[in-house]
């Protein structure tokens, strides 16, 4: 499923608050921490199967109301933190919706089995040759 950040915007709400961390005296005055809440249930971008998948994969990011929450306070600017939350949300959604290919079981080739057994035999012969054959010395 292909989607862009623009497709998600109608169902996104932002909340800002004061951020800890770098910023000096400015940190006490400016609300630079950005909190993004995405209502994926109300979104037309995903079908019901994808919504169930998101519910399972992103359960640890969900609020009690069923919204996906992403927080950023790394930057000093509120705008940059909002941009970062959008990027994080996009990555979380992409990763949650990605379906891994099933692994096909394979058998080792005959030549690799022979090679392994030959190396094993050589190693055994080497160890036998190391043994002291004369018990009196």
Instruction: Count up the helices.
Output: 4
Quick check: average pLDDT? 88
Low-confidence stretches: none
What is the N-to-C order of secondary-structure elements (H for helix, E for strand)? HEEHEHH
Total beta-strand segments: 3
Q: Decide which structural class fits the backbone.
A: alpha+beta
* DSSP helix fraction: 40-55%
Report the end-to-end length measured between terminal Cα atoms: 76 Å
What is the approximate shape? elongated
Taken as a percent bin, the fraction of beta residues is: 5-15%
Rg, nearest Å: 29 Å
Strand neighbour order, sheet with most strands: 1-2-3
Query: Major sheet: size, sense and barrel closure?
Result: 3 strands, antiparallel
The gist of it:
The protein has 137 residues and is of the alpha+beta class.
Walk me through the structure.
The protein has 137 residues and is an alpha+beta fold. The protein is built from 4 helices and 3 strands; from the N terminus they run αββαβαα. Strands 1-2-3 form a 3-stranded antiparallel sheet, covered by helices on one side. The longest helix has 21 residues, at 110-130. It is elongated and about 90 Å long. The chain starts with a helix and ends in a 7-residue tail after the last helix. The model has no long low-confidence stretch (mean pLDDT 88).
Describe the structure using short key phrases.
40% helix, three-stranded antiparallel beta sheet, 137 residues, alpha+beta, single chain
């Amino acid at each position: 499923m292909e989607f862009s950040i623009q497709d998600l915007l109608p169902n996104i709400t932002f909340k800002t608050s004061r951020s800890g961390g770098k910023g000096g005296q400015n940190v006490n005055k400016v609300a630079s921490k950005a909190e993004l809440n995405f209502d994926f249930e109300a979104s037309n971008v995903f079908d019901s199967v994808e919504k169930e998948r998101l519910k399972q994969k992103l359960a640890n990011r969900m609020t009690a109301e069923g919204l996906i929450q992403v927080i950023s306070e790394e930057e000093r600017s509120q705008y940059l933190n909002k941009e970062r939350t959008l990027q994080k949300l996009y990555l979380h959604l992409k990763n949650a919706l990605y379906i891994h290919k099933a692994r096909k079981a394979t058998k080792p080739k005959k030549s690799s089995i022979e090679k392994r057994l030959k190396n094993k035999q050589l190693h055994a012969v080497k160890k036998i040759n190391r043994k002291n054959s004369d018990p009196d010395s």
